[in-house]
Amino acid sequence: MSLTNQDLIELTAWRRKLHQHPEISNEEAATAKEVVAFLDDTGPDKVLTGLGGHGVAMVYDSGRPGPTVLFRSELDALPIEELSGVEHSSLVPGKSHMCGHDGHTAILAALGRQFGRDRPKKGRVVLMFQPAEETGDGAVGVVADPRFGEIAPDFSFSLHNLPGIPFGEVRLKPGVVNCASRGMRIVLEGKTAHSSMPETGISPMLAVSKLMPALAKLGGGAFSDDDFGMVTVTHATMGEAVFGVAPGRAEVWATLRTRLDDRMAGLCAAAEALVSQVAGEASLTFAIDYHEIFVASMNAPVAVDHLSTALDQEGVIHSEDSLPMRASEDFGTFGRNAPSAMFFLGAGERHPALHNPDYDFPDDLIPIGSRVFMRTARNLLG
After folding, report:
1. DSSP H/E element including 32
2. Which residues pair with 24 in a beta bridge?
3. pTM (2 decimals)?
4. Measured distance CA(55)–CA(67) in Å, rounded
5. d(CA 69, CA 281)
6. Closest CA to 38 of 128, 104, 110, 100
7. Residues 101-155: tens digit of each pLDDT
8. Which domains does the chain have, with CATH numbers?
9. For the residues of 259-307, what is the DSSP string, one character each?
């Protein structure tokens, strides 16, 4: 149930190696190979690669009947220039592990080391190193992969480190823990004209200026209510960066966010109706597409009970404070196939925030996270 000091030294060094060589979503080929190589000597009974892109599944099988328990981490980094100043800073310009996925991966590798020495007494453990969490493509791709049936879990568990929470404490609750969200890209098309004769064209200028505040007003409801909705305009462009042309094309990007998936459908419909109305009034055509689609992450009560028991047994303080969160997480996709739950592991109240350029994963979370996962697995599988 425990890691040796040498394990922790080697896992920490490996985590920092991953940190120095980040790969963003859907580009994690080298990171996936690194995972396979690092855990090769643990003798997994099955290794699946290329799942949903660059995903890797390592299976430790007891050879006896029992449930399949999946633990997930993420492989991808972010397109952010690192400014942490740590010795193991990213060596890749403009890319870095500013969300701690390198640390989550090290936690799963810690499980691999332990199960390599002592298989579960029944059933099997699946360590799922998932690609492309940041874009919402990863979990969907993994679950849609035909080979996912070979490792279909009876329970799925995950964790995420969380700055702002006391170090080593956990936040966990049943029900919704992360919001559904999706990126909405709106393209408005009119007619380009010479800037000296704008009346001969059809400009999207007024439509854009009207659309942006109107989109933001579509949200509503307190965050504590299931009817909560939020629209955040994140980007807008119009025409070319020149003075001689009156623009005929514009784009507006917005992120739609809700607590529940059902509410998302209504928010999308309202946003699409608004775009249609505004474009029509300005004699513009329009097109809408969606990107980075995340379903709501819902913690199943039975899975939460297993994690809660493990936390109590390991003496880890936990509460429901700070949950749910507005941020999205694609782990919710796993919950559509089996009871699942994610917990949030405190990185420290003053630790730099996720996605900030000065963030770095606290290595001392590796033994805490792996202890909780290991206790959960042993309770279910022996």
Report:
1. helix 29-38
2. 77
3. 0.95
4. 22
5. 55
6. 110
7. 999 999 999 999 999 999 999 999 999 999 999 999 999 999 999 999 999 999 9
8. 5-178+296-381 (3.40.630.10), 180-294 (3.30.70.360)
9. SSHHHHHHHHHHHHHHHHHHHHHTT-EEEEEEEEEEPPEEE-HHHHHHH
